[in-house]
Amino acid sequence: MELVLKIFETLDITLLAVLQMGLVIVLTFILSLTLVRPVLATFQERENLSVKPLEEAKLLVDEADAKTRQYEESQRKALAEALARKRARVEESSRAERKEIESAMEETNRQIDAMREQIASEKEAAAQVLRTEVSHLSQEIAEKVLGRSVA
Q1: Quick check: helix, strand or coil at residue 145?
Q2: Which of 146, 151, 120, 148 lies closest to 135, judged by CA?
Q3: CA neighbours within 13 Å on the CB side: how many for 76?
Q4: Do residues 135 and 146 make contact, with C-beta atoms less than 8 angstroms apart?
C-alpha cells in the first residue's frame, strides 16, 4: 500500500481523487444496471417488434409467391392434359366417323353394283322381249301388208 501511496504522491494524486474515481466506477455500475440495460432492452424489444415481423412478412410473401408459381404450374399441366385428352377424343371420334363413312361408301358401292347388274339384266331381258316382239310384229305387219301368211 505504501508503494501505491508513493506512486500517487509522485503523480500528484490525492486521496480525494482516488475516492472520486471509485465513486465514478460505482456510479457507472449503478447507472448501467438502472438505466443503460433497460434502454438497451427497450431498443431490442422495438427491433423485435419492427424488424422481425418485416422479415417474417418477407418470408411469408416468398412462400406465397412459391405457392402461386406452383399453383400456376399445376394449372398449366392440368390444362395441357385436358387439351391432350380432348384432342385424343376428337381424333378418336374422327376416326370412328371416317370408318362409318367408309363403310357407308362400301355399302353404297355394293348397292350401286347390284343395281347396275340388275339394270343390265333387266335391259337384256327387255332387249330379248323387244327382239321377240319385233320379229312377231314384223311378221304380222308383213302378213297384213302382203295379205297372206308369212312363215
Answers
A1: helix
A2: 151
A3: 6
A4: no
* pLDDT one digit per residue (tens) for the chain, 151 residues: 778 777 767 777 777 777 888 999 999 999 888 888 888 888 888 887 887 888 888 999 999 999 999 999 999 999 999 999 999 999 999 999 999 999 999 999 999 999 999 999 999 999 999 888 888 888 888 888 888 777 6
Strand intervals (E) in the chain: none
Q: Provide the 8-state DSSP code for 51.
A: H
Under 8 Å between Cβ of 135 and 143: no
> What stretch of H or E contains 32?
none
Phi-psi region of 12 (alpha: psi -120 to 50; beta: other; left: phi over 0): left
Cell reading at 51? 424488424
| Residue 14 near residue 8, CB atoms below 8 Å | yes
